[in-house]
Hints:
Layout: E1 8-15, E2 18-25, H1 36-51, E3 56-62, H2 69-74, H3 76-89, E4 94-103, H4 104-109, E5 119-122, E6 127-129, H5 133-140, H6 147-158, H7 162-166, E7 172-173, H8 179-190
Parallel strand pairs: 2-3, 3-4, 4-5, 4-6, 5-7
Antiparallel strand pairs: 1-2
Amino acid sequence: MPDYAKNIIVGFARMNGRTVGIVGNQPKVAAGCLDINASVKGARFVRFCDSFNIPLITFVDVPGFLPGTSQEYDGIIRHGAKILYAYAEATVPKITVITRKAYGGAYDVMSSKHLRGDINYAWPTAEVAVMGAKGAVAIIHRGSKDLAKAEADYVEAFGNPFPAANRGFIDDIIEPHTTRYRINRDLDLLQSKKSVNPWKKHGNIPL
């Protein structure tokens, strides 16, 4: 599906001879925002990999869900829940690398620790926050005369991966050139992973 939902990339790769599924945001298209089509595309791929026990590697650079009334009327919450459900139910090894932006609910659904992600890394360029600095400062410091200074202070405090790492949402902050080595090492570690969901006849994915 190279021409469908270009704001998310899915595909297969080999890491040290092992087949893996790759999911990644594409910031060159719609700034990497998740919309309805991207959510469904990502969810179908994650479920496929989980069906055939293929480990998942997720690269995150997502500023949020795509805003707009057309998305809301067409059911962005219902369709966005599909990728959240797919990641939450998947029992295969799940490794996540945050490369840049990881904002709000869209960060949560991209194989975060909150969805049982096994290993979560961040590059030094990563930002894990509710929203971008400009939008956050406009709300927190509404009416302030020196928004530029407030925005600079916000970026210094939250425009990096360290607050998320302190809270345990990130396992380690790594240099980009070590990413392949870390992923291969973790795939070796997780090859014997056994994760069992509570018994039920089948799940109830939001359709």
